[in-house]
Amino acid sequence: MVLCITHSNDFYTIDLVQQHLEKMGVPSFRLNTDEFATGYKFRYTIRQYELQGNGQTITDAQISAVWYRKLWNMKIPADLDPAYQPVFTREYQTYRDLFFNVLQRVPWMNPMHTDHAVCNDKLQQLRMAYAVGLPVPASIFTNDPAVIRDFFTHCKGEVVMKLHHALSKSMKGDGPFFPTTRLTAEGLEHLSGLAYCPMIFQEYIPKAYELRIAYVDGVCFAGKIPHEEAATPTDWRAGTTLQWQPYVLPEPVQQKIHQLMKNLGLVFGALDMIRHTNGDYVFLEVNPQGEWGMLQKYLGYPIAETIAEKLITRIKNG
Question: Half-sphere exposure of residue 21, counting CA atoms within 13 Å on the CB side?
């Protein structure tokens, strides 16, 4: 059995993976982490961890692999006194994590600790990408306006800025959103807010097009955003209608991505890259929990099937 860790608002991708697992004769159990405290019952002893929900009852011994897709904050009952909410959250998180801890004996896609470590350190991502031979943009993480003014001059006024973390986890893209934005000369006069929210500043990369790459245990599925769409918004996520195109990465680039993911300890990740007008493939970042449903939906890539099959292979290989 494969444990699928996600949340109650997840759709499409989670369904496709579970359907293919079922087709391959491997059952799965969906754990909506935001509902762990309100939608599941558990019973733990020194011999067995038991979880009940979705009309199923499973034990830790039945689980042979974990697909870690998303981890969301737990819902708190509306009638719970606010004074008790910290205790409620802390205790339920503890029992959730006890369940996860006992599953460290089985293969994970991705291991949770590694997933979080990579997601929380984009500077290390850039270092490691550069180390395997992938070009990266000049970057500064700072809260110092004076440093940014110098960086702006060094980059000849070609600078973008972005947050380290997304404001929203919504797959629909309808939550709070701060896209990657060009920094203008006028904007240099309004950097005092960095004291409240430090940001990432990078040299602007002239783009022929942008790429979103779903990496699944050694396999790359790449989608291209055409020049006329990619060149307008600085961040492709800010576009309203995108016409994804299939794309095949050169083998040397795929090999560097594979080495990067291996060095990061990731089995899965969604990578953002820019094809520079000079021909370089410039690495921006990898999101261990990044979205890929649009690549499967619009390009017909068998990403869900590959996830399921790779999980089964890891089960067989122990």
Answer: 26
- Sign of the Cα pseudo-torsion (122, 126, 131, 133, in order): positive
Q: Dump the DSSP string for 164-200.
A: SS-S---TTS-S-----EEEPTGGGGG-GGGGTS-EE
CB 8, CB 32: distance < 8 Å: yes
Instruction: Look at the block and give the residue holding tokens 């060095």.
Output: 263
Query: Is the same domain home to 210 and 197?
Result: no
- Cβ partners under 8 Å of residue 90, min gap 6: none
At residue 231, the pLDDT reads 47
Per DSSP, the three-state class of 289 is coil
Eight-state DSSP code of residue 48: -
pTM, 2 dp: 0.91
Predicted confidence at residue 193, as pLDDT, reads 83
* 282: containing domain: 111-134+206-318
CATH number at residue 30: 3.40.50
Sites in the chain below the pLDDT cut of 50: 169-173, 177, 229-232
Residue 221's Cβ-count burial label (10 Å; 0-12, 13-18, 19+) is: buried
Residue 211 to residues 41, 220, 297: CA-CA distances in angstroms?
42, 12, 16
Same domain, 25 and 85: yes
pLDDT tens-digit series, residues 280-300: 999 999 999 999 999 999 999
For the segment 160-176, what is each residue's pLDDT rounded down to a tens digit?
A: 999 998 755 444 445 55
Alpha-carbon separation of residue 104 from 76, 110, 309 (angstroms): 27, 11, 20
Dihedral over Cα of 13, 19, 21, 27: its sign = positive
Q: Are residues 200 and 210 in the same domain?
A: no
What tokens does 13 get? Answer: 């991708």
